[in-house]
Amino acid sequence: MEKPVALTQAVIEQNLRLLGLERGMAVEVHSSLSRFGRVEGGAATVIAALMNVVGEEGALVMPAFALTLPLPLSDEDKARGILAKVRFLPPDTRERTGMGIIADTFRRCPGVITGPGFHRVCAWGRDAQRHSQGYQYLLDSSGWTLLLGVDIHRCTSMHYAEGKVGLPEEVRAFFDTNKEILRDYPAEQWYVETVTPPEDAWGKIQAEADRRGFIRHRRIGAAECMFFRACDVVGLYEQALRTDPWGLYGIRKREAS
């Protein structure tokens, strides 16, 4: 059987433009290189294509959280209800992170600025310094989000709606780790997921954004890709959190006593 033809930079650029990317755009990017299939030159080729399409008058912003890839779960972990665990890495790590090889490679590119803090991002292009402080500048300036082979669950700018509106106590409880597990996995060293809410809130937002025509779709190689104005979709999430966050997450609202 013949191997699939490797994607070239030119083919990736052509498809990014057909998806809607233009010179001068500021774009938040989340990605999975493996979802493309074979890419000639790997992550560096995808980055070069993105840079060439938006140009230096545009901007690229990617996550730079210092977290490991998801680590294997022991039988004991599973018995305790642990669904996933990742370890925090030093800020200057050169180890592979859970952000993906494209984001890891981008962070080390010349001209890319990495911002401060744990939930940090890195940025290149126009206003890179401002973009490196987080996604708020991109949201405020009607920037865009590009998902390459991943879905909305990788879109970290969605958390900005939570920061603005807040999550009710009943929802937050699903993301709290119990003290017994924290003794073995201290919060300053680990992120551990134990329980998920009954319903997929972010998946619902993606479906509603699709229904409203906010999201453009295109297949690049084997990767299903999405492109949308960031504030449109984050705004949908913010609106849902303001109106009925319990229903969004499938949780019964606790009645006041």
Polypeptide structure, described:
By secondary structure, the chain is an alpha+beta fold. It has a domain at 9-65 and 91-162 and 200-249. The protein is built from 12 helices and 9 strands. β4 and β5 (121-125) form a beta hairpin. α1 (9-19) packs across α2, α7 crosses α11 (230-243) and α10 (201-211) crosses α11 (230-243).
Question: Key terms for this structure?
Answer:
257 residues; alpha+beta; seven-stranded mixed β-sheet; 12 helices
Structure summarized in a few sentences:
With 257 residues, the protein is an alpha+beta fold. Helix content is 35%, strand content 17%.
Envelope shape: globular
Portion in beta strands: 15-25%
Elements, N to C (H/E): HEHEHEHEEHHEHHHEHEEHH
For the largest beta-sheet, the strand count, sense and barrel status come to: 7 strands, mixed
Layout of helices and strands:
Elements: H1 9-19, E1 26-31, H2 43-54, E2 59-63, H3 75-79, E3 84-87, H4 101-107, E4 113-114, E5 121-125, H5 128-131, H6 136-140, E6 144-148, H7 159-165, H8 169-172, H9 179-184, E7 190-193, H10 201-211, E8 216-220, E9 223-229, H11 230-243, H12 245-249
Parallel strand pairs: 1-2, 1-6
Antiparallel strand pairs: 2-5, 3-7, 4-5, 6-9, 8-9
Helix pairs in contact: 1-2, 2-4, 7-11, 10-11
